[in-house]
Amino acid sequence: MSSKEEKRVNEVYDYEKYFKKATEKPFNFADHTYAEYKWFEDFEIGDTYNLPSRTQTEGIFAAFMVVSGDRHPIHYDRKYCKDRGHRDLFAHGLQTLAQVAPGAGIWPEEVGESLIGALETTSRNLKPVYLGDTLYPKLEIVDLKPQNTTGVITFYHTIYNQDGEIVLDGFQKYLVRKNPKNL
Asked: What positions does the domain MaoC-like occupy (predicted)?
C-alpha cells in the first residue's frame, strides 16, 4: 500500500474521532426500536397490522412437530396424506394459528413496556393449509375496552393463502397499560 493510500485509510478509519463522537452522550436503548411506544389510549379501532408472509416449509412442519409433540402422520407422512385425498402434508391447526402471532410484526415494538400479557385467543380453521402454501396474516383492532389503569385490546385476525382465500380467522385479546402520566 502506498503512503497516499495508507493516509486515506487512516483518515477514513479514524477510530478515536468516531469513538469520541459515539460516547459523547449516554447510550439509549429506546433508540433501537423502529416504532414509537404506545399506551392503551394511543391505539384506535381499525389499526391494522399486516404481518410478513410465510411459506409453510418442511422446516416449519418439523419445528412444529418438535414444539407440539404432535406426531400424527397427516402432518408428516406424504403417502398417508395422498391416500386420504390430500395434495401434500396437512398443516396442524395450531401451526397455522401461530402465523398470526403479533410478535412477527411491528406491534410488539409499539406496545413496548405497556403490554402486560395475552388474555385469550380463538380461531376457526376455514380451509386446509398444505406444505408449500404461502400465508398472509393480518391483525385489526376491533375493540378497545378501557379499565382503571389498563385496557383490553381485541384483534380480529385473518390468514389468507396464496389464492386469496381466508384459511383461518379469529380473535386475540391483550391487556395493555394506560399511560401512567394520564392516570
From this structure: 45-148
Q: How many domains does the chain have?
A: 1
**Residue at 20 is within a domain:** no
8 located within any domain: no
Nearest to 61 by CA among 76, 72, 43: 76
The grid coordinates of residue 20 equal 469520541
Range of the domain at 172: 37-182
**Could you say which residues of the chain have pLDDT below 50?**
none
- Cell numbers placing 31: 433508540
pTM of the predicted model over 0.85: no
Distance CA 145, CA 142 (A): 10
Please tell me the distance from the alpha carbon of residue 103 to that of residue 82, in angstroms, as a whole number. Answer: 34
Residue 7 resides in a domain: no
Return the number of other C-beta atoms located less than 10 Å from residue 39's C-beta.
Answer: 20
Examine residue 62 and state whether it is found in any structural domain, yes or no. yes
Burial 94-121 (b: 16+ CB within 10 A, else e): ebbbbbbbbebbebeebbbebbeeeeee
CA R_g for the chain: 24
DSSP letter, residue 80:
H
